[in-house]
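Here we describe the complex-level prediction in full. Unlike the single-chain runs in Section 2.1, the two entities below were treated as one system.
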Amino acid sequence: MSRYSGKVFLLVFSLGCLWLGPAILAQQSKVAATPSAASGLSPEQAITLAEQGRCRESISALKRAMSGQVPAQTRKKAGVAGLRCSLTLDDRDSAADFIRWLNKQFSHDPDILFVLVHAYSDLSTRTAQDLGRTAPQSIAAHKLNAEALEMQGKWEPAQLEYEGIIEKEPNTPGIHFLLGRLLLSRPDAGPDAGERAKQEFLKELEIDPKNAGAQYVLGELARQADKCDEAIPRFSQAAKLDSNFAEAYLGWGTCLVVLSHYEEAIPPLERAVRMQQGNPAAHYNLAVALSRTGRKEAAEKEFAIQRELTKNSPPDEPKKE
Amino acid sequence: MQKMLNVTSTLYLTRRKLLKVLAACAATGACPQITAALPQSEFPFEVVPASASGISWVHVSGKSPEKYLPESSGAGCALFDYDNDGWMDIYLVNSGKCDFYTPDLPLRNALYRNNRDGTFTDVTQKAGVAAGGFGQGVAVGDYDRDGFPDLYVTQYGRSILFHNNGDGTFSDVTEKAGVAAPGWASSAVWFDYDNDGLLDLFVCQFVDFSKEKNKPCGIHEDGKRHYCIPKIYRPMPSWLFHNNGDGTFTDVSKTSGIASHLGKAWGVVATDINNDGWMDLFVSNDTVPNFLFVNNGKGKFIENGTEAGVAYSANGKPRSGMGLDSADFNEDGWQDLFVANLDREDFAIYRNNRDGTFDDLAIPTGIAKATRAMSGWGLKFFDYDNDGDLDLLLANGNPDDLIKALHGESAYEEPLLLFNGTGKSFEDVSARSGPLFTTMMSSRGLAIGDFDNDGAVDVLISVNNGAPLLLRNNAGKHNHWLGIRLVGKKCNPDAVGAKVSYQAGDLKRSRMKVGGGSYLSSHDPRIVLGLGNRDKVDWVEVKWPLPGGGTQRFGNPPVDRYITIIEGEDKWK
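The structure predicted for the assembly as a whole is:
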């Protein structure tokens, strides 16, 4: 489940400030957009102008500073100033240029990484605002809003958003999946949440039979309900739909091991190991399958990797950290 | 068991629903008498109150704001016959003075003599077994072959060997014997690893801990200090002491290979997983992989837990192994294994595949589902209803007294669980087994034994920071049974490792007498063979452990009573 929820998490994280007003970075640069012929500015002069809020006058020179023979410290200052000015001017092309330069030239500098986090967040917020402005009643806007609400733990309004979309456009792909996922995440969803979520994933598959995530989550729900025989076709279908879906291969192989189908378990587990070399569960289950089919040497190799991986990792389920 | 099924419909509520209803009742004070609809005697176990048993002793954990880990782990208990009068006596272990704890009043362990009428008398002072250190567990065995069971009391700090003098008193012979095991000892087991006929001693060591090493961890999101997860403490080697036969022991931890493996051991059971006649050891470890020490018959143990499939969870990560046991639950002639873990880890029941490997059947047996929210300590396979199939009783409780604040689905105090065996699998019968199985407790040790000699195996449970629980078995008396005390002559005197087979009409079963099992506790050495409604036993066969190793068969033994079988003697007593 982590793969799909992970993507959504990143998206929603970037939307943390959705609808919340002007971005932080832009606020840090006082707006004074007086146009001036400033093509001959030195990098230092351009930085000074930018710090005074004279962004329009300085931005070209700041761009030149990033690509010219300029000392690193000056380039860094110019890049940050340029990025702030771009955001102040809502010049997203220039912002993207500064981000690319800073990323390339100062990729290990914590100060720069900090600035970039805010820049991405700011751009994300602006794009979300664009969506809200241009198509406030669109499915995309409601979906985005629901995801942001979910991220803030506002489960009830988030659920209402998803349900609203379904009412309006019952066959929109992806919404039943998101609603099912919300039901599994929502701490107060009630004792039948699992079953309700399952129904949502099944509906999703009726609309979009190629939704690998829905297949996978149905497999995981079955596995957690101790029904590996039901889980296996779900996992294998998810893997078929998305050949890079490591968790699906792992779930598939693990369930085959649970059912003592060791020989069959080896191919999906080998795929899982190739895709997730740092995952002890994949190595362990592959080792068990290899061991039980007489391939002791290969099994021992996998056990050794698994032991190494678990040496310093937390126990299966952290309990009291 | 059928009789117990015919109860009010409320008992058919699922276990979770029943607990919820009870919790709601408690909160509102408007409780219908759900489980009180039937007298306790209709349920398989009933609590013998202290007022009836005379057991007034209470465990004191020494809880402190500093949350020293040993406060959460104790303590153990034993059912054993210290005066050889044929009636099981009781030993209970307490906390006591140590580097991090000075009790307001001196604490002591307790020995209660069975008065043969359902009551017990505290004879601790006379017997000289009060101990007084920070106690953890107890292991019983006749190490000197004098016919009287001796006591090994494990402690945080230094453990104690009490030699039974045979006159109602014991002597502390720890120093002479050389078995002090300085450190944090938890469970221990007497067994004969080298088949020389003398009981050797394995002692689990938990982690490298002292007052100075207590870590300031455990400030959680709720702002409170919790007991630390043992992962942060260094693992330690356990001890193996070889019995020299002269009252002394040699520490063979290194030469036997035991000390090569650092663990965080809570539980141990001595069993023979490969039927080679050499006793192996299954050791549960907390946050590191469990050990399966396979005895090579040449004084060495090969640790094979990973390859055997009993070291890790299905996710390839170590769990928090605590209580454990071994028995042939599926009656295929091979010893299976069970280990309890922490909440949200699922307990494991490992079927022996007869090739050195095991498969965890926790999911198909329903054990996983029933134990998902539980943390398990004392546990034992035994045939509580004497129907001929091994059942399973589990004592539970989370080590973190503030767990509820972190995980709403978990609780510090947890109910017991009872699984009825079918000879192949198990059925969770806790929800219909009476109020005892909805009573929340902080259980730790669990010892089984027939204290009233009625053939129905009773249970003693030690409770962290509370009074012990003596449970009378009401289920076993509805079926026929045969109780056997084995006395080894050539083999070890307690006959640990003996295999008893029997046939009663269509019922053919066998039981191995394992060493230890459960958690910090020691059990009635007698084996009770359940017969169901069969009132005749065709034969009983005993395969004695090496070095004797002989097999004796006894035709038409009596039923519904205890007999003694002495190795090499043609007739039972």
